[in-house]
Amino acid sequence: MYDSSTPPSQWISIFSREEGLETAYTHNMTATLIASKNGTEIIHHRLARIGTMGITPAADWNELESFYLLTGSLRVTYGNETSILYPGDKLVAAPVHEHVCIVAIEDSEFLYVSSAPVFQTYRESIDGFHELAVQIALKDGYTASHCERIRRYSLMIGCELNLNATDLLSLSCGALFHDIGKIRIPDEILMKPGKLTPEEFDIIKQHTIFGRDIMNSPENPFLNIGSKVAEQHHERYDGSGYPYGLKRDEIYLPAAIVAVVDSYDAMVSNRPYQTARKKADAVREIASLSGKLYDPRVVDAFLKVVDTFVDED
């Protein structure tokens, strides 16, 4: 029996449930480094419902990675294949050759073991996410909460459409930061309560290009995968959108998903220039615009999952 009055030996450390060597947080994930030795790391994860985690293959990476699910359930997409993990299930790769996207079906906990250090990469990515999230919140508080809803709802549609892992990761990242380009739009235009002039609207439309450039920046490598979503989320199925007037299959499918969800969320949210509409009215409008403004595949999937949308902010 362990006696708390007796110091443990140098090679044994005892932590409570909430303790660890180091912890990193995102909006929907907590990652705690609980053990590290000779390059091997064991990281405990808590992933909230519809939270995501991605693994990206690298040319110079040849290490073992393993997941062991403790509680909850996870939807794991590896390349084009999808499996559901339940407590006691494991995922092992040595090494990962394709993108892996993990989506929590419910609040879940799992252990992640890597034969090479990865936690500091977590830290750098998470710090970058936080910095951009703060910039969005300072620019427009509505945009910050709106972006998290868009990420969550978009992923639900992406899973319904059985997107591959690369597209799911692009969707998750791109949906969360689809409006990041707005940080470069002047406040007097972005926050204007009245109708925009044609010149002001032309400036607003530039946020799609600004967003692409920010996400493609070498300073933000963890965002690169979502840049096309930021660039194309205002394109429309009939070619009436911007910035390029793309239509139908010319539009990247994850961006077409965000187009629907972004429009829906705007309809049901209170804004300075608009009172929130009833959910049923917004759903009817989205359905009526299928094949016009919105990709029919996306609208069909949206109609299947919209009743499960829950505002968890």
Name the shape in a single word.
Answer: globular
How would a textbook summarize the main sheet? Answer: 6 strands, antiparallel
Q: Rg to the nearest angstrom?
A: 21 Å
Low-confidence stretches: none
Helix content: 25-40%
Question: How many beta-strand segments?
Answer: 10
Class derived from helix and strand content: alpha+beta
Number of helices: 10
Quick check: average pLDDT? 89
Domain HD-GYP: 121-313
InterPro entries: Cyclic_di-GMP/3'3'-cGAMP_PDE, HD/PDEase_dom, HD_GYP_dom, RmlC-like_jellyroll, RmlC_Cupin_sf
Protein name: HD-GYP domain-containing protein
Structural overview:
This protein is α+β, with helices and mostly antiparallel strands. It folds into two domains: 96 residues, Jelly Rolls (Sandwich), CATH 2.60.120.10; 186 residues, Hypothetical protein af1432, CATH 1.10.3210.10. It has a six-stranded antiparallel sheet with strand order 1-2-3-10-5-8, covered by helices on one side. Strands 4-9-6-7 form a four-stranded antiparallel sheet, with helices on one face. Strand 6 and strand 7 form a beta hairpin. Helix 2 packs across helix 8, helix 2 packs across helix 10 and helix 8 packs antiparallel against helix 9. The longest helix has 21 residues. The termini are far apart. The mean pLDDT is 89.
